[in-house]
Amino acid sequence: MTTTHPRKPVAVVTGGAGFVGSHLCDRLLAESWRVFAVDNFLTGSRDNIKHLDDNPDFVLIEQDVTQYLKVPGSVEFVYHFASPASPVDYGEYPVKTLKAGSLGTLNALGLAKNKRAGFMIASTSEVYGDPLVHPQTEGYWGNVNPVGPRGCYDEAKRFAEALTMAYLLEDKVNTHIVRIFNTYGPRMRLRDGRVVPAFASQALLGEPLTVFGNGSQTRSFCYVSDLVDGIWRLSRTEFHEPVNVGNPAEMTVRQFAEAIIKITGSRSPIISKPLPVDDPKQRRPDITRARQLLGWEPKVSLEEGLRLTIPYFRERLGRAPAAG
Ligand code: NAD
Ligand code: UDP
Question: Which CATH code is given to the segment(s) 10-316?
């Protein structure tokens, strides 16, 4: 009697050397998929995927997603996660950000269409801009300034969502849109400017924590394993409308600074810095859709998530001064 060994399904993860992308690669490999990660290391790092060097199911394709994407053989799913993601990064690379969201999404959707693969775009809570509806439901169209400093990112993602819907309607690609809310965890770059690595490294170094504005703006922080679980579950569906994935536990930025000080045992003071232009005043996902559709909700509390993340930042800070 012969035993058949069905081949493993294949995923392409653009941005696979980034923070979220590398955790997604790990999850896919754990689910017995083969993975092609596409990355040009604009904001990602080889360190994030170093542990996969000897994994025969993992292949790195070092290229820019704005160039034609060529992947050998069959592909079952394309996750398009390549894009600068922090306000500091997309502020430094506004054109590259718009290209990753437009040309990059076009190439990733084209690949999915050619390979008859499923597709997911990593969208963002930023499509809601500075929201006038709170908490944010997927039905809210947002309040975005297209010509402000966040416009390059917000509009790139809004265009990417529109393009994704167009490939669903015209080319019948099995598309998915995940709207990711502030997520944190190991492998975030120390100096990407986002509040979690910023406050954590300041607290660990005994430097003042830089709260922007009066710190009354709110965010809701999701631990990366919870996010990746939501992404995985969504990719198994045939659901095409956007789905918020994030942790609804909302707090002010000042409260977050205090939480970081407490958990690190730091003696750092908190100081104020100017509030960046168009910084959203409040943000919290309504996750009713994810709960009902995916049976998903976050499991990791902020305290638990920070206890898993702080040692990573501590270790990075202990390396050479250029670490990050
Ligand atoms: P990240 O910067 O760590 O990862 C992005 C990756 O994309 C990096 O490895 C970078 O090198 C790569 N990349 C950028 N431009 C590229 C290009 N032109 N060609 C090839 N590779 C390119 O950021 P992240 O936090 O992991 O974000 C991943 C995705 O999730 C992004 O699309 C982001 O918009 C989305 N997202 C993240 C969050 C969050 O809180 N982390 C929130 C909302 C949305
Ligand atoms: N923030 C802050 N100090 C910092 C970095 C960020 O007070 O050193 C604030 C920022 O103004 C925003 C929140 O923290 O209100 C989250 O910022 P982040 O850059 O992480 O992401 P955003 O949610 O704005 O995209």
Answer: 3.40.50.720
Ligand nearest, relative to CA of residue 203: 2
Q: Is 200 in the pocket of ligand 2 (CB under 6 A)?
A: no
Distance of CA 138 from the midpoint of ligand 1 (Å) = 21
State percent of the chain over pLDDT 70. Answer: 97
Question: Nearest bound ligand to CA 246?
Answer: 1
Rounded to the nearest angstrom, the distance between the alpha carbon of 259 and the centre of ligand 2 is 15
Q: What integer pLDDT is reported at residue 6 of this predicted model? A: 82
What are the tens digits of pLDDT across the range 132-156? 999 999 999 999 999 999 999 999 9
* Alpha helices, DSSP H, located in 182-301: 195-205, 224-235, 253-264, 288-294
Atom 19 of ligand 1 has which residue's CA nearest to it? 64
208 lines ligand 2 (CB under 6 A): no
Q: Is 16 helix (H, G, I), strand (E, B) or coil?
A: coil
Residue spans of the chain under pLDDT 50:
320, 322-324
Structure tokens at 263: 């958990």
Instruction: Give the start-to-end residue ranges of the domains of the chain.
Output: 10-316
Q: Which sequence positions are flagged as catalytic?
A: 153
Nearest CA to ligand 1 atom 23: 85
Distance 266 CA to ligand 1 centre (A): 30
Task: Please tell me the distance between residue 160's alpha carbon and the centre of ligand 2 in angstroms.
Answer: 24
The Cα–Cα gap between 56 and 51 comes to: 12
CA dist 229 → 138, 158, 247, 300 (Å): 19, 23, 12, 12
Peptide bond preceding 135 in cis form (omega within 30 of 0): yes
**Which residue has the CA at smallest separation from atom 27 of ligand 1?**
85
Closest CA to 101 of 121, 116, 117: 121
Total residue count of the chain as it appears in this document:
324
Look up the pTM and report it. 0.97
Round to whole Å and give the CA distance between 13 and 251. Answer: 32
88 by Cβ neighbours in 10 Å (0-12 / 13-18 / 19+) ranks as: middle
Alpha-carbon distance of 315 to 73, in angstroms, equals 39
